[in-house]
Amino acid sequence: MSERPTIVIEVRRWHPDAEQPPWWQAFELPYREDQSLLEALQHIKDELDGSLTFRWSCRMAICGSCGCMVDGRPELSCHLLMGDLAPGPVRVEPLAHFPVIRDLVIDQQDVLDKLPVAGAYLVPGDDTSATEPSRQTPAQVAEYAQFAQCINCLLCYSACPQYGLKPDFLGPAALALMARHDADSRDAGQAERREARDATSGVWDCTLVGHCTEVCPQGVDPARAINRNKGASARDYLLDLLLPGRRR
Amino acid sequence: MTAQRHPDLRVIDCDLVVIGGGGAGLRAALAATVADPSLDIVLVSKVVPMRSHTVAAEGGAAAVLREDDSFEQHFEDTVSGGEWLCDQAAVEAFVAACPRELAQLERWGCPWSRRDDGRVQTRFFGGMRVQRTWFAADRTGFHMLHTLFQTSLRYPAIRRHDEFFCTNLLVDEHGLAGVLGIDIATGHPVLYRARAAVLATGGAGRVYAHNTNAGIVTGEGMALAARHGVALRDMEFVQWHPTALPGSGILITEGCRGEGGVLLNAEGRRYLEDYGLGPLEPWPRPRAMELGPRDRLSQAFWHEDRAGRTITTAQGNAVLLDLRHLGPRRLAERLPMISEVARRFLGIDPVTAPIPVRPAVHYTMGGVATDLDGSTTLPGLYAAGECASAGIHGANRLGSNSLAELLVFGRAAGEAAAVRARSAPRPGEALAAEARACMAPWYAMLEAAPAAERPRVATLRNAMHAAMEDGVGIYRDAEGMARACEALAGLRAAYRDGVALDDRSLAFNTEWLSAIELGHSLQLAEVMAHAALARRESRGAHQRLDAWRARDDAGFLVHSLAWCAADGPPRIEHAPVKLTRSVPRERVYGGAGERVALD
Predict the structure, then answer these.
(1) Where in chain A is the domain with CATH 3.10.20.30?
(2) What is the pTM (predicted TM-score) of this model?
(3) For residue A146, what is the nearest residue in chain B, using CA coordinates?
(4) DSSP reduced 3-state for B159
């Protein structure tokens, strides 16, 4: 068998105990074209340096664990093939706009805390003790299905310049999940979500850059979700002016 | 980088700890807080809940829904599918509870695929005689998990401790008293004192090299329970999913075949008709050909491969899963994720080319033996989901029964644990001292001087994989299983002598955690090998090539029970299977039948 080609992966590293700022470390390793970047990082950890630290789990772009910046762009490392990254070198960094816990591991608590604020859950409307499933037509499912594909991988937060500038912005995923539930025919939570939607940290903070939609590995299109809710927010504002007292 | 030693133990009191934030754990936590809103519930998980492996389930969840279906038929399919090793009372309770649980998920927002009139759509699955599998395209587990996670956000009484790695269960004279572990971000120890815990830690598929499982599926929950004298049941029954990608093992859902996909060997022949699943026509019909059960299909692959009728890929031999006749519209509607997976990872568009697939380890059918309410023999400890053996899968699980199982038994365990949490006396102050003593060996792993001759984590893990693939595969014989037992005993001894860690710091030390996981995985692998060796018959997913090629109801219509020892091999015993109304008979698939419409 012929020698496998090698590639250089440069990783930005940091450890909270280290008395130094983040540093770059280069690893040279053999690779296969059909191998994922995640598998290459695993090779480094298993064979070259067990201290290299990153999250991963499912290997198939559905668990949302392995986000990182690859050559400056937010990506899932399991979703990139080495053949597409060769000849390298490949530069891997922690996701932008998040505090770093260690190496490629970022602190995701801020976004997790924003999900309940955004009302990112269904508020059952009718009889909650029913034991039969309710009906929902395929057309009604289609109203929210795209926004329901969000895996909370946080790539959109790294891509969003507004989140980088203004961390209290609810951000693309939380607002997409807000729109997902608002658009669900079974949901009765629109009024509950309205305050978060209309707040300065809600939809109006979005400056329509659209990078969130470009980097989404699941085609969620948070930008479209936010635009929908901008329309709803504006409509509610006008209706409140025209019809005082309508708001619950 | 060296750690500061002996970080302080944080002690937190609560009523109930749920260990694991996948489908079973979230369902248990929700059930407990609904049953008793005053309970202080802590949900700990080594990953953020939506990263749990439930997320990767694709094809669907079983529950009687259609008018042509009945509990009796779901029961019969499940019990015959498990080759009569199921506990029939458990199956009866399970099938009756499935519809209510899936409807509950619907009420919580799960985006089930629908019929034109708005009713939930169902699809065929292997070994099921009726379209019984509810699905959300081919992302069913993802949508179920996110629905459960999102719903949990409505209940502040469920406090989450994400990225908490459980290392020990603590027990006193009243039973379970606490859950001890490591806060992953800081590496500091935390003790949750509580009178009830629900183990929902998933399976152990990662003891094999080729598997469909996420990296987290290392099985330590089972090992933690076993350390306290709880039996592990039926661990020799490991499910190979027949259609995974060669190399990576990424899952290609059984829903492909439920939607009409077919399997072809290198000669283009639908070879399953040669393995007791034919005749081919009329096609499609349930419980025949590609709609046969997973054990039979994986075994058929093994024979085709031995006969040289598989194709060669860079990542190993494979057969072809042909979906082309479904057409682009149906693929986009019903199977979008696996279509994307095939395009992304193989550069193959299933609209125009078949997908190479081969079996990979998928599911741990055994686990912590539980009663119908999830209770174990350790008072206060409950288990649900893949880490548990509630008794419904027997010798072969039918696809789509496990997503329903984690809801049914997750709920049951949560409700029972909620009662227990209120009724038992508070754990005493002495528990903290015991916790510190229990933590010492884990921290000692960081202090051990790096020794050149010590094996790396990956070295031992690879050796474990090799032993299991070699000796405890789809087909087994005494010689191979004994070889695996011996190899695993050697690996456990090597592990006890110490593994070499490059990383001896505390903060987010995943090398350290993977070393701890490895110790548990080695123990479970050894249990699987010994339980397999002790089953001197062939049944379901346990098929032998030596003197015990036939099913033996007289001798082995029994569960295996494994009791673990700290160092040595497990003790294997057998216990009767509880039958209620289905008398064991020949397990038959294929044969005559009527063509059905796949709508």
Answers:
(1) 6-106
(2) 0.97
(3) B111
(4) strand
